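Structure, all two chains, one model.
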Amino acid sequence: MSARRGWAWLWLFLGFLYFFIPLLGTFIFSLHGKRGVLSFAAYHRVFADPLFIETFTFSLQMAILTIIVGLCLIIPTVIWIHLRAPWAKPVVETFSLLPFVIPPIVLVFGLIRMYSAPPFQLVSSRLLLVAGYVVLSFPYIYRSVDAGLRAIDLRGLTEAAQSLGAGWGTIMFKVVLPNMRVSLLSAAFLTFSIVIGELTLAVMLAWPAFGPYMALVGRDLAYEPAALAILSFLLTWGLIGLIQFASRRLAGSALGGTH
Amino acid sequence: MKQQSEGQRGARVARPSSSARPRAWLGIVPFAVFCLAFMILPAGSLLVGSFQDPQGAFTLANIAHLFRPDILKCYLVTIEVSAVTAVAGGLFGLLLAFSVTLGGLPKGLRSGLLTFSGVASNFAGVPLAFAFIATMGRVGMVTVVLKTVFGINLYEHGFNLYSFWGLCLTYLYFQLPLMVLIITPALDGMKKEWREASESLGASKTQYWLHIGLPILAPPLLSCMILLFGNAFGAYATAYALTGGLLNLVPILIGAQIQGDVLHDPNLGYALAFGMVVVMTACILAYTALQKRASRWLR
């Protein structure tokens, strides 16, 4: 018994080393921005770069658009399937998992081939970038929304609301969506974390996004990339933390459900 | 159970009139149109293009060219990186997940490791490459400390972060945590009763693992590794930022082809991309089939 625990500790310790050393190394490295002393100079320079703000804002806008478009596309579809067209579930599920089969580099290749010539010349439009991001986030949004809907008694809730005279607008915004806020939040945060540092689509479609900006910094500078890596890690950590916080805090207070 | 009863209820309510079915179809039209426009048709256009010559006539030459030595090599390196990181990440991830589930460690470590894995599996792409350059690059922290404190010069001993093994080491940073996340449910499904039953029947620990534990764990283990394989196979950003396109991986070659027609043959580029989709599809199909098999025991 204790031998097993000893091995368990050993594996966990090795894992800890593998995960922790690059983070620590990167952090210490990022403090060398000023010769001879440890300082946050590299971080100051990152934040002072106008391109940092510009590209981050651009990616932020794209992330918000992606979240809006993705949710508007998937929520009604999944609700519709649950209520009216259960037979369509396998089809929609397959569609929303297809991005796992089509890597981003292939997806963007196809988008460029299809939309760089008339009749649909979209390659230089932000629309195409957002559409690509929506496709990339399909699996995550679909899974969150579907899980959220399965956790509530959708049919019971809508029938109760209808029998009390509520229209579809009221049902959606006052009954169904508030009950799904945890899964909607986690879908939004996951999408955000995918889009904010995304490189492949942004580089190939030539947009001044945050991912390509980071890649450029990495080519030209030494300490700023390390600072950016630490900042990205903190951002990812913060987003995942928010998802977990939201699901813990809000899940208990959800209406309806199975209890 | 719940799903089933919902389905029955749904069938009862949704059936009443025969005209309800065409209208029920309408609800998924926006989603279907979007998928067609921005996923299926673009991918399909690559598929069509890979069977066309520059004049648009049907040909199998592009597919045949995929087996040209330089392109085959490119696929092989990509497959090797994916396989190495899938197996190494899979085994080590299994050991880590095993430690916090069946290993008898304090409960807090389990949620700690799972939370961290959620973060680390999302920490990929450019920042991840930066982290490894800052740590294991030529002037990275670990490289420097090993050289000045321990007198070990990694780069003189054949290590190079910007090469095959360096890329593998870097990919493991998102492969390992992904493995922990997807194999933990399978380990949770290993019932204590099985071990107790086998022990009370006089089986040794080795016999338990050989005849009960491993046969049950093998399908989920294999399916998770296949998922890791696909995960590495499609990765572009990390490799691009780490090697700057020096290591010839299929995604890198496709990227170069998009940006500057390095193959001097657009249709060969489409075939290259089509080949990736074929490999990824094979992965997902194998994954689903094995998961189905695994769910017989572990639920």
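Chain A has a mean pLDDT of 87.
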